[in-house]
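A quick aside before the break. I want you to see a complete sequence-to-structure record at least once, exactly as it would be stored in a machine-readable document. Don't worry about memorizing anything.
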Amino acid sequence: MTRKQPHQLHGFNTTLQEVDQNYTWINDMIKARQDLVLRYVKLLKLVPDFDQHNAKAESSLGEVVTFCEHMIDYVSHGHFDLYPKIIELIENASGRSLSIAQRAMPHIEKTTDVLMDFNDKYAEDLSLDKVSSLGDDLVTIGDALEHRFRYEDRLIIGLRLVHTIVETPH
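That is the input. The structure line, written in tokens, reads:
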């Protein structure tokens, strides 16, 4: 079986500009995203050890579980706190339909399914045998995170645009 190529981090927007003080909670999301990407990269570097089932791999199983915990926190915070807040702000400020949100949310929700499947597979009862497909699964997760971040950025940019339009005198 040929292994998928490791994810090239070019698509991970970890440098999204911080927003003004009205939206510091978006800055917190950006920091959480950066932390998640760093944990992802750390796991990518551990894949060769997992493939060889060496002693370092045994001691690194906790890194996989920790990544899953942070990933689920990030996903949950987005779905249950950030996205509803962004959508409400856009709707209240613009008084128009939420075409940005309506287009972005289905894409974000698709990535949630992929991320949850990864979590279900690796978050509990982890052993060296179970991580045999970790490298390929991390490629899939990297693609899902890249896709998710792109659509989260669109929500944030939409919020900024609406905020700018509302704040600009006519």
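Two observations worth writing down. The mean pLDDT is 83. Residues 55-94 form the longest helix (40 residues). We'll return to this after the break.
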